[in-house]
Write a structure and sequence with these properties.
The structure holds two protein chains of two kinds. Chain A is an all-alpha fold. Chain A contains nine helices and no strands. Chain A has two domains: about 120 residues, Rna Polymerase Sigma Factor, Chain: A, CATH 1.10.1740; about 80 residues, Arc Repressor Mutant, subunit A (Orthogonal Bundle), CATH 1.10.10. Chain B is built from ten helices and no strands. Classes of the chains: A mainly alpha, B mainly alpha.
């Protein structure tokens, strides 16, 4: 499906509410959005759940949204990006709460050795979660690249994925990340330089 | 071929901009033979990113997810879009982008209209020297400009009576000290009376009665505020 057909599907869905038009839109974006989410959160189960939420939000709000095919793409990715940010926020809070609970428990028992073991276990569990590539089929797995991507900051990582994996133009990317086109180009430049450095180390 | 040169920012930006334009990575590399070795590392990074395009979701999940969306929509009672009846289609068609600015424009217009009407209404009781007095005079001038010639008579007589009324109010108030405004008022009275007389808006009796009234008012004003005799006094003769 090309972008003209996509625009027609959006128009028809808004006009008639016919699910067959939504299905076409869904199939056009599904792989892209899933890939974008997966690469950003490195957890296939959570990626599936977020992808589902993205399309449910699209289904729910598309009728009211005033969009053409260009802005529609940005809108869908923006929904995904916002859900990714929410997910990271929740994860960070969950980890913080967990470590605080364990810290309090160890303080109560007043056993320094136990504290050390808790810290080590936390570090170990963090490391386990962050091990690159486990969530991707082995044939496409490039541990060096995925480790490098994980070391970039969130925005740099997103810009690289949107530009080189999703093949989006700078205008669309700038809409998704709420930055100017110039700033987006600068982020991409810094990101690619840093990623190359990380990969050649 | 020199492959040892460190790639500088300018070269890298040029290289990346060629890729952005859709040029094949290997062709881009061949454009910078002096920096081939260094740029190749960037090219490899971009190629490996490109390889991530092959990641895809499980087909079963894709189907299940679509069913879940429809199910959730049904549970939460979300209709994709309300079907538009032909009766409502016209109104819905009118609703797009320009409706909001249009409403805002009319709201501002109504607001300006109300504030203007309010100012005009408030200026009705203003006296010479008041802030709103020029508004009152301007509205009279506009009224004169838009009134057909055959109806001007009543309007001018009404204006003249209004001026005389203002003079009466001024004379009845002890706190009115603005001698310039009083002098201007005398000038206005004379001017309006002269127009009425020249255009023969006043009958012989009415004219004489009004003239006496004007002379009396002017004398009282001059007595109180010591204003100079106005040039149009000659009209009294």
């Amino acid at each position: 499906m090309n972008y003209k057909e996509l625009e027609l599907c959006i128009k028809n869905f808004k006009k008639t509410g016919d699910n067959s038009h939504f299905e076409k839109i869904y199939r056009f974006f599904f792989k892209k959005i899933y890939r974008f989410v997966l690469l950003n959160i490195s957890d296939s189960q959570a990626a599936e759940s977020i992808t589902l939420d993205v399309f449910f939000n699209v289904y729910r709000h598309l009728a009211k949204a005033r969009l053409n095919s260009g802005s529609f793409r940005a809108w869908v990715y923006k929904i995904a990006r916002n859900l990714i940010i929410d997910y990271h926020r929740k994860e960070a809070k969950h980890k913080q709460d967990q470590s605080l609970e364990q810290y309090i428990e160890t303080r109560q028992s007043d056993d320094l050795n136990e504290l050390e073991s808790v810290d080590k276990s936390l570090i170990a569990s963090d490391f386990k979660e962050k091990s690159p590539g486990e969530y991707i089929d082995s044939e496409f797995r490039d541990p060096e690249l995925l480790a490098g991507l994980d070391k970039l900051d969130e925005l740099q990582k997103q810009v690289l994925i949107l530009r080189f994996v999703e093949d989006l133009d700078y205008k669309t990317i700038s809409r998704i990340i709420d930055k100017s086109e110039l700033a987006t180009r600068a982020i991409k430049f810094r990101a690619i330089s840093k990623l190359k450095e990380l990969m050649t180390k | 071929m020199n492959t040892g040169k460190n790639v500088n920012e300018k070269v890298l930006k040029k290289f990346l901009s060629l890729i952005d334009k859709g040029m094949d990575i290997d062709t881009c590399l061949s454009k910078f033979p002096g920096y081939y070795h260094n740029l190749k590392e960037y090219a490899e990074t971009i190629k490996s990113l490109d390889n991530l395009k092959n990641i895809s979701a499980d087909k079963d999940f894709e189907e299940k997810s679509l069913k879940d969306i429809y199910m959730r929509a049904r549970t939460e009672d979300i209709k994709g879009v309300k079907k538009i009846s032909p009766k409502n289609a016209f109104l819905t068609g009118l609703r797009p982008a320009y409706l909001k600015p249009l409403i805002a424009f009319f709201a501002v217009l109504v607001l300006i209209g109300f504030s203007f009407t309010g100012t005009l209404y408030a200026s009705g009781d203003s006296l010479p020297g008041d802030i709103l007095y020029p508004v009152k005079r301007t509205s009279e001038n506009i009224q004169v400009a838009f009134t057909p010639y055959k109806y001007e008579k009543n309007l001018y007589i009404k204006i003249l009576e209004e001026r005389l009324g203002e003079a009466d109010i001024i004379l009845s108030r002890d706190d009115f000290k603005d001698s310039d405004a009083a002098e201007n008022l005398i000038g206005d009275i004379d001017e309006t009376y002269m127009i009425c007389r020249e255009r023969k808006y006043l009958g012989a009796d009415e004219g004489e009665k009004l003239q006496n009234e004007i002379t009396a008012v002017k004398d009282r004003l001059r007595k109180r505020y010591g204003t100079h005799k106005h040039g149009t006094d000659s009209l009294n003769n």
